[in-house]
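Readers outside the structure-tokenisation community will struggle with the description of the input data as it stands. Showing the layout once, in full, would remove most of the difficulty. For illustration, here is how one protein appears when written out as sequence plus structure tokens:
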Amino acid sequence: MERGKMAEAESLESAAEHERILREIESTDTACIGPTLRSVYDGEEHGRFMEKLETRIRNHDREIEKMCNFHYQGFVDSITELLKVRGEAQKLKNQVTDTNRKLQQEGKELVIAMEELKQCRLQQRNISATVDKLMLCLPVLEMYSKLRDQMKTKRHYPALKTLEHLEHTYLPQVSHYRFCKVMVDNIPKLREEIKDVSMSDLKDFLESIRKHSDKIGETAMKQAQQQRNLDNIVLQQPRIGSKRKSKKDVYTIFDTEMENTSPKSEQDSGILDVEDEEDDEEVPGAQDLVDFSPVYRCLHIYSVLGARETFENYYRKQRRKQARLVLQPPSNMHETLDGYRKYFNQIVGFFVVEDHILHTTQGLVNRAYIDELWEMALSKTIAALRTHSSYCSDPNLVLDLKNLIVLFADTLQVYGFPVNQLFDMLLEIRDQYSETLLKKWAGIFRNILDSDNYSPIPVTSEDMYKKVVGQFPFQDTELEKQPFPKKFPFSEFVPKVYNQIKEFIYACLKFSEDLHLSSTEVDDMIRKSTNLLLTRTLSNSLQNVIKRKNIGLTELVQIIINTTHLEKSCKYLEEFITNITNVLPETVHTTKLYGTTTFKDARHAAEEEIYTNLNQKIDQFLQLADYDWMTGDLDNKASDYLIDLIAFLRSTFAVFTHLPGKVAQTACMSACKHLATSLMQLLLEAEVRQLTLGALQQFNLDVRECEQFARSGPVPGFQEDTLQLAFIDLRQLLDLFIQWDWSTYLADYGQPNCKYLRVNPVTALTLLEKISREMKDASRKNNMFAQFRKNERDKQKLIDTVAKQLRGLISSHHL
């Protein structure tokens, strides 16, 4: 029963479940019925569920059938009414079709008009859109057109600004158009084109600057010369109305150039045309000659393009190359001053441009770069000047060169360049200038000395006297008292030489001007140069005249007189130098003039030449001597040649009256000594191997004539018998042989008061041997009468004995 109850309970639960599933199938969407059906198949009551489902289907069919039966009459009625309406609808359709046809026919024109209106509206809309787009594009096109115009007129910096606006402001607004893309693609090309064109302008500028550097430098040096002349006029007063623009004014060109760039100024690339100025008109400023706008434009263009460093390196490299070209002097520069001037003008022009660039640009060139260039230029310029100035032999050219170098240095110093080395080099050139002056004055002195007549200057009037005294400082009270005509003691070369020395001093002074030397340095330079003139140039000229072969005693005497007066004038030369340098001689380290020494040396050389000349004349007379050394006859008078020689000496010493006393006395003593020595040599010469006592007597007469000349006092001032001492050796030798006083000689030899103190044993032996030979030769010839020659034999024995004793004296003396 329980089992039956349980089965009944399960059956009820299954029935309830099936009912639920059926309701779910009826209420659920067909797409979602899958899970529900699956639950049926998963259960065990599939057959029962199918039965339930069939039962439910049959119930629904019966309900549908009941509903259809209920509404069938209404459906029939509806169909009937619908059939009635169909006829009416067909009529209405025909009417609508007819109406539509009529409407289509009537509205066809309207449709066409509407289509036209539509197209017009569309075109209007398109036009409006196009206008809007064109309004956006027009500024771009205008800017591009402006850019092309600026490029065409070479206004490159504004063109670069326009390009920047076009790229960053206008093109982004219309970047989707193809022409904009073309423009964008062309922008780098345009920048490169601007760079290239700007660089081309810069190259033209650099080339123009290179060609016209001499013009720029010439202008700058003219300004410096004008300023120096003005300074000389106003002395130490401040500058008034400087001819040159101040750097501050000149450098404002840079600012105005970039703010107000005109096509005309942009087409200029370098040197502006400037008409030649008259000397009395204002010289244009060096910067006024140059248009620097190509440099500024190119610098700004490269700066904007981010290539400033490239531009700076290129500019400096090119200018260094130009500097090397400028600093290369022409090979013939030393020939003319214009060669040096052009060389300096180019250097000055180069550095004027660089100085202007330094102060008007920010960093294109810097002070270190300028200093490096200047150091190179200074070293090369100094080397070139040293080389080429060494070829100059004209002191006027050297002086002009010095003035040009000073102007060159002063000009560059205005621009801040150190020029001390140039002034140091001028001191080297000063030495060369002195050498060229010395060479020039050597020729002047040579011409003066060659053209001089070596005769006292005659004057016939007071004017002539004052003229000579004005040329040469000479005072002689006795000469002033003498009536005209009268003569100065010196010849014309004295005032001429004196004035030429002063001219030389003036020439030295000219070189020292503008060298920024102190008065002491100038004085020292002049004195040293003058000393060289006196001790070397003038001294050599005088020595050359004195040493000439054809110089006469009269000329030598006049040279001694002239040099004496020139020596006295040295103190006036000292005063002259003191007056022009304002340095007192008492100043410490002041160089003294060596003129006194120079003229003394020349006078001594002339004196020596007089002595030599006299001796040569004596030798010429002695060459006429023709002694017969084997003669036994005596003429009882001096030889003719000796009489003529004595007459010549008397006339010669008569000319020596104007010479200083010691000079005349020395000349006379020298002549007598030379005459005595020459006579002794005649007596002792080796060619004369035999000598007779008779010939010795004749020779003694000639010596007595010489002693008589010495006693007559041909030159005043000698003490008694002083001049005769020149012949004392001959006199004692001849007395020894003529008196045959050998016993006295041999007995007293070596004693200070002996009678024949001046007789040398060697000389006596030589002469004795010549007499001995003659006697032996005579004995051999007269051998047949030997019994009658006992005295000669005795004398020969005596001679042999004396000779032996003399040899003993000689031997003991040498030991």
DSSP finds 27 helices and two strands in the chain. The first helix runs from residue 2 to 27.
